[in-house]
Design goal:
- Helices cover 72% and strands 0% of the residues.
- The protein has helices spanning 3-29, 36-42, 47-51, 57-77, 85-102, 104-112, 115-119, 131-149, 158-177, 180-188, 197-209.
């Protein structure tokens, strides 16, 4: 490996180190409490080093959004060759749930925290739409339209139906991540103790979707 390649690798390693530290601080301490100085201290770098990569914490937050949505998009892309649209829709839901469970910090930044909506568009001068997020939703929308071609959801507006599906699965993920789903299930579904409640509820939701024919 040449000197140039080594420098580029070291720079990328440092960038990822900064993002990982910021992700932890944003989700555990909150947006307002997180500062460039704290991010630097987390990885034992000087604040000056952070500024060589990002101009402020808003830019770091946007970079984390890009990383998260690209990771989710890659997982969705693995489903693109599932020909049956309804099977693909079910697989998308399971993939989305797994992403939320396995990438708690990313999910918090992407779909729970309000600060990205308040800061990224107004402070950073960034586009009003996040291309990565729009592409993920469009994949869902096109899958729903494919389901309609197969005979499902005939009388439904595909955009509203896609929003409903996303909102439902997101709600399950948010409840699971913050402990509410397990808390309620211990009282209401005690006979199912030890089972994978979030996926059991999702499969029940899928069964209701199958009735829209």
């Amino acid at each position: 490996m040449g000197i140039k390649e080594r420098k580029e690798r070291d720079r990328e390693d440092t960038r990822l180190l900064i993002l990982d530290a910021a992700k932890k601080l944003f989700t555990r301490q909150g947006y307002e409490a997180t500062t460039i100085r704290k991010i630097a201290a987390e990885i034992e770098y000087s604040p000056t080093t952070i500024y060589l990569y990002y101009k402020d914490k808003n830019e770091i937050l946007y970079a984390l959004h890009q990383e998260g949505f690209l990771l989710l998009a890659r997982q969705f892309q693995a489903l693109i060759h599932v020909d049956n649209a309804f099977e693909r829709l079910k697989a998308m839901g399971r993939t989305y749930i797994r992403f939320a469970v396995e990438n708690h910090d990313f999910y918090e930044l992407m779909f729970i925290m309000k600060e990205p909506l308040l800061n990224l568009n107004t402070t950073c001068g960034l586009p009003q739409d996040w291309e990565e997020g729009v592409e993920s939703f469009d994949f869902l929308l096109q899958t729903v339209k494919g389901c309609q071609q197969e005979g499902y959801f005939k009388e439904q507006d595909p955009r509203l139906l896609s929003m409903w599906i996303w909102a439902t699965v997101h709600g399950l993920c948010a409840l699971q991540m913050h402990g509410h789903l397990d808390h309620v299930s211990r009282h209401q579904l005690s006979e199912m103790a030890g089972q994978d409640i979030i996926n059991l509820v999702f499969e029940s939701f899928v069964s209701s979707l199958e009735q829209f024919r």
